[in-house]
Amino acid sequence: MIGPSTRRLAVVHTGGTIASRPSPDGVGVTPQVAPTVSGLPGALVHDLRPFNLPSPHVTPAHMLALSHLIAGLAPEHDGVVVTHGTDTLEETAFLLHLTLGVQTPVVLTGSMRHAEEVSWDGPGNLLDAAHVALHPASRGRGPLVVFGGDIFDARTVTKVHTTAVDAFGGYPGPIGRIDRAGATPHVRFFARPEARPTYHPAALTARVEILYAYAGWTGEGYAGAEERADGSVIAALGTGNLPAELLPLVARTAGGGKPVVIATRTHAGPVIPVYGYPGGGATLVAAGAIPASFLNAHKARLLLMVLLSLGKTREEIRQVFEEGAF
Fold it and tell me: Where is the active site (predicted)?
């Protein structure tokens, strides 16, 4: 029986290691059955499985479909948890951050170890995520990521280790923590909710490619990406610098009306147009490139994809990145 104080939690399973077990054919592990939430008194749990994929198979189209699904679930639930593979979890979290304008808490989690390992971290992460999703202080914060007891903002969270159970981090660190030392979990936030714009493309029709800078790069692969894509993101060096040979290429692309966003391959910090040598950040911006602010390259790609799919011009896109309207 559903009472007036019963909390309603939707758990959306999408696959990943948290749902994985050794394959019947003996070749590695594959997504099969996700864990269920237990230890939530006074909660009615609604499980859904829109798809069951390893996270490298998740596309932006899956992410947008997930956003639409959650938008429909939010009015009828007090919280939503999404289980997801860790390889692209931060990208799904950020796409939801950009496109999902609900006040209902949405929390993503997963696991680093599969169900038949003795130290499977899936059930603990799922229970933590459920408690955070149903906590009143989680409302209005946008999608969150909960992993290893830490609570992260979707804009800054990133996977920082390939195998460790505390695989998620990102500067400036978690915005909260959940501890389950006693019978009542303690959810604590270190930051206030912030107002944020959301964007609502019907589909992600734009193609955006990422290029990775390195010492001695003279533009290999640039022309092909420029031709195929509607816009490009370059994971540049340091504060957003490139070898001199890239300056005329970026100027050509920007002059043709296609946006080129400059992110950094460094693990943390903003892109700042400081240097005036050929290929330095100041010369790239003068040539028409757009600094990515503090977004890493794969999150900058998603924002650029959303804006291009909405038909935004290069100058409108520049304004969004410069003002941090995300």
Answer: 17, 86
